[in-house]
Write a structure and sequence with these properties.
By secondary structure, this protein is mostly helical. The chain has 2 domains: 30 residues, no CATH class; 27 residues. 69% of the residues lie in helices and 0% in strands. It is built from 3 helices and no strands. It is elongated.
Length: 68
């Protein structure tokens, strides 16, 4: 998956702090940092599936506890 490109146009009257805040928000929405961290370490597909299964079991357990 290709990471989307983030562009920010800063108007002349806009402060640097505001522009930086807008840029951080755009990067967060595009999930660029998450994608970068995900590529730092290789996980075998079997490990990824196991983690997904454990997360699903946990969510189901919590959902059942909330229903009671």
């Amino acid at each position: 998956m290709r990471t989307p490109r983030v562009e920010l146009t800063v108007e002349g009257y806009e402060s640097l702090d505001r522009a930086l805040k807008d840029f951080r928000r755009l990067v967060e929405q595009a999930r660029i940092v998450e994608e970068y961290k995900r590529h730092l370490v290789y996980l075998k597909p079997s490990i990824v599936r196991r983690q997904q299964l454990l997360r699903a079991i946990y969510r189901e357990k919590m959902r059942r506890l909330m229903e009671e």
